[in-house]
Amino acid sequence: MSLREQFTDQLKVSMKAGDSARTSTLRMIMAKLKDTDIASRPKGIDKVPDDEVLSMLRGMVKSRRESVTLYEQGNRPELAAKETAEIAIIEAFLPQQMDDSAIEAAVASAIEESGASSIKDMGKVMASLRAKHAAALDMSKAGPVVKARLST
Asked: Which helix (H) or strand (E) holds 29?
């Protein structure tokens, strides 16, 4: 089942259950997806593939995390709680992320495979990680690990 079908199915379920917060978040996801589809039309793509949908969802989570930080700094816990709830709903559609030890192992094997020896080779290592683990690897967590490994 594609992510688009999952969004539609989950929206129907949440509407029937009367879960207004979940319904609102799912509608927001679907609206963002429609915007993404429209933006890709000049490239000759009617509907973006699931990997781009996952990237869109990660972007939505990232912006909400930034909002949570700002709301907490601004002493607005009710808005921070709303954003946190949206993050949980959006993350349910993302694949399980690697933990720190799995990230370390993936970085070690990518360095070994690419033959990287210095910080100048960081791009090769990151490209290798992205190619193999794009869905399950948070690149913002992997970057510092790669940098630390190549700096020593």
From this structure: helix 20-40
